[in-house]
Sequence to fold (269 residues):
Amino acid sequence: MSKLLDMFSQVRRAQSSSGMGFVGKSKSATKPRAAALIVEFTDIDAASAEAGIKAGADGLLFTWDGKATSEFETLKEAIDSAKANGENVVCGLHITGGWDTLERESLEQLKDAGVHYIVLPLHAPARLLALKIKDLDFVVSVPMREGELYPMFIRNLTAFDTITAIRLDFWLAEEVGAMSIEDALHYRAVREAVRFPALLNVRGSMNEADALTLIALGVQAIILAVSDMGASTQKQVKDLRKLLEKVHQEEKDTSTPTIPPSAKTSLQG
Fold:
């Protein structure tokens, strides 16, 4: 199973604590969350990767301009550091350029470095989506654009069977919780046009109303872009994780109970 899809499903389930006796590491219990939390870095750094996982991120997303393959070793070190603090961590790479030299061999090297998925913008060469590489998922960034026909246009992404998920590159306004129903419908129209699991960019200062609105848009993961992993950023990550736990619990508590078939029969009788 795709590591990315596995992360989406894992965060919705609680995991009990486990130990290994007097030797080895023990796992702490984790609460289910409304969506996975991914921290995105502008620079590839092992210390930041480690701090992101310790703060509570489910996954990490690094950025590469597609030019210097010498960065692959640095990338591998960062991913190895992250995995040492979270064995199930899922790591991705946002590729921003270097399209002329990006071939299958480069993507194979990225996979060997520990990358589970790559994020491509819409202007990336379509030939890349024809490369079927085992254990490497493709995610396409989908921006929000005006026009009634845009959802129909973007729906054509479903023709590419190598796409695993989409990144909703919306950058919503800070007061997401104050979004009107009409505004939400515009975003939802684009979201519904492509029936892939979705990752969505978020700001660091989110409240419960913001989180509930984002979940209503139908996302499986949120991406928090950071410039460093200092104390304030670590607190943002921890707070976001707690917020996602709270929203999931409230969703569970307020979900409408279903009537079993046997009960329906007796009621109709």
Observations:
- The beta strands are 36-41, 59-64, 90-95, 117-120, 137-143, 163-169, 198-202, 221-226.
- The radius of gyration is 20 Å.
- The chain is about 40% helix and 15% strand.
- Residues 7 and 245 are 15 Å apart (CA to CA).
